[in-house]
Amino acid sequence: MFDYNFHWRPVMRSLPDLIDAAFLTLQVAVLAMILGIVIGLCLALIRLHKTGPLLWLASTWVELARNTPALFQLFFFGFGLGAFGLHLSPYMIVLAGLTFNCAGYLAENFRGGFQAVPDTQVRAARSLGMTAWQTYTRIVIPQVFRIVYHPITNQMVWAVLMSSLGMLVGFRELSGETQFFASRTFRIFEYFTVTAVIYYVIVKIILGASRLLAMRLFRY
Amino acid sequence: MIEIRDLHKYFGALHVLKGINLDVKKGEVLSVIGASGSGKSTLLYCINGLEPIQQGHVTVDGTDVHARGTDINGLRQKLGMVFQQWNSFPHLTALENVALAPRIVKGKSRAEASDIARKQLGHVGLGEKLDVYPSALSGGQQQRLAIARALAMEPEYMLFDEATSALDPELVGEVLETMRMLAEEGMTMICVTHEMGFARDVSDRVAFFHQGVMEEIGPPAQIFGDAQSEHTRKFLANVR
Ligand SMILES: Nc1ncnc2c1ncn2[C@@H]1O[C@H](COP(=O)(O)OP(=O)(O)O)[C@@H](O)[C@H]1O
Ligand SMILES: [Mg+2]
Questions:
Q1: pTM (2 d.p.)
Q2: Of A123, A131, A134, the CB nearest to B50
Q3: Which tops the pLDDT comparison, B146 or A11?
Q4: How far does chain B reach from its first CA to its final CA, in angstroms?
Q5: In what order do the strands lie in the sheet with B213-218?
Q6: Per the domain annotation, does A129 fall within a domain?
Q7: A2-16, A119-133, A172-186: which range is least confident on average?
Q8: In this structure, what CATH number is given to the domain that contains residue A43?
Q9: What percent of chain B has pLDDT over 90?
Q10: Which of residues 60-99 of A touch B (CB under 8 A)?
């Protein structure tokens, strides 16, 4: 049957390094989400209001981000740009790849959110003398934000998990670090088990925090 | 005073308002009646500049609504509007709904704006609902909230676009009652309505719209008792 002896000690010894790597994972995921939200918002607004080359660019971005493997998107910023002599650091490759992917998905969420706010809300606000900008920031965006809140949470979880692809472009975030230790000690199963638990805990914390924040933010 | 001269409005090729001439004096209550699609809502939107016009003029107290360079956001503060759909801002409490525009449009302080909102909500009978979100209000209450929200800007004119049409029948009364109260207080009002009782009892004049044309305008007694136009008589025969 089993002739495998579990050895957890090496894993425990490198736990501090794994935790450090977990923070790196979280950092790159959070940054990618912040950039992704800003860019995704722009992509959505372009797709709703613009025509011509800008619309084409935004649509292509969204299509590629949503309909090709995330790993390929990462490879594009690594090996793809590398082929043109543009060499990004592993950190930048992962950040760019994640941002590209998140912006594409979030753009569609935002677009749906904007379409879900009725035109009559805008008319009511404008009839009170609000400027277009005030109407957007005070009336439309807060309602869109509520609609996209849970999709954003999901995307955040997805960004954390997807960052594990970073190990395939030599980035030593949580998975890359795990792979590094695992191959040095040959305690592959133990290392990846512990790492899986760390991912699980991170995701649960994100979901919990998101739920708490939602209770504070949305009382209607 | 609102002066409308030779107003033409098109949606693409569709000619929706065909040369409207109409004056509404300070203190007057005008009801606008007519079949669905006759251009009544569009008329209101042209008065407060929510829709651009293609020909003619609309002036409010001497200011041309559609002229380049008109401070339209400033002008709209004079023109409160209440829509058929309730349009309360769902993410704000009743108090915040009403206080928002005085604060960010008129630049009132938070405290001043809240005072105004409290006063106006009390005025329309929602003094107990200050901290309630619209989702917890009935349609009639939301419509009264919309009236309070418009009144908080201290408008000189109120435009009502079928304010009761989307309400359950048992909720119509409370909103009409609020409108009647405003009329008695001397507010200048243009009320697009299907409530013929309201048009007859409350308005100084009634205008009948038919396919983008103002067919007939006159005191309620004339419109309801002695209509000059065949179309007016037909319309009234059908709604009664
Ligand atoms: N935004 C719009 N785009 C195109 N056509 C419109 C628009 N709004 C109204 N219309 C058309 O203009 C006509 C008048 O509409 P409306 O003013 O809403 O009539 P009423 O309020 O009397 O029912 C209708 O034929 C309607 O379909
Ligand atoms: Mg209408």
A1: 0.85
A2: A123
A3: B146
A4: 32
A5: B79-82, B157-161, B188-192, B29-34, B205-210, B213-218
A6: yes
A7: A2-16
A8: 1.10.3720.10
A9: 95
A10: none
> Is A3 a residue whose pLDDT tops 80?
no
Q: How many domains is chain A built from?
A: 1
What's the mean pLDDT when you consider all of chain A?
Answer: 92
Atom of ligand 1 nearest to the CA of B36: 23
Whose CA is closest to atom 16 on ligand 1?
A: B39
Highest mean pLDDT among A7-16, A75-84, B175-184: B175-184
* Structure token pair of residue A137: 């920031």
- What's residue A1's pLDDT? 57
Whether residue A9 is contained in a domain is answered as no
* B56: phi then psi, degrees, rounded to nearest 5: 95, -170
* Among candidates A121, A123, A130 on the partner chain, residue whose Cβ is nearest the Cβ of B105: A130
With a cut of 60, say whether residue B224 has pLDDT above it: yes
Distance from the B229 Cα atom to the nearest Cα atom in chain A, whole angstroms: 34
**What is the domain range of residue A40?**
20-217
Instruction: Tell me which of B71, B72, B104, B137 to substitute to probe the interface with A (most A C-beta atoms closer than 10 Å).
Output: B104
A141 within a domain of the structure (yes/no): yes
Residue A170 lies in a domain: yes
Q: What is the dihedral of CA B119, B120, B123, B126, to 10 degrees?
A: -100
Give the side-chain half-sphere CA count within 13 A for B68. Answer: 0
Check pLDDT > 90 for residue B44: yes
For chain A positions 103-132, those within 8 Å of chain B (CB to CB) are 118, 120-121, 123-131
Interface probe with A: pick from B73, B147, B157, B159, most Cβ of A within 10 Å: B73
Q: Is the CB of B52 under 6 A from ligand 1?
A: no
- In chain A, residues with a C-beta closer than 8 Å to the C-beta of B96 are none
SS3 at position B93: coil
Q: What is the mean pLDDT of residues B43-47?
A: 97
Q: Is the pLDDT of residue B240 over 80?
A: no
How many angstroms separate the CA atoms of B76 and B49, rounded? 8
Which among A93, A62, A87 is positioned nearest to A166, based on CA atoms?
Answer: A93
Asked if A183 has any chain B CB less than 8 Å from its own CB, the reply is: no
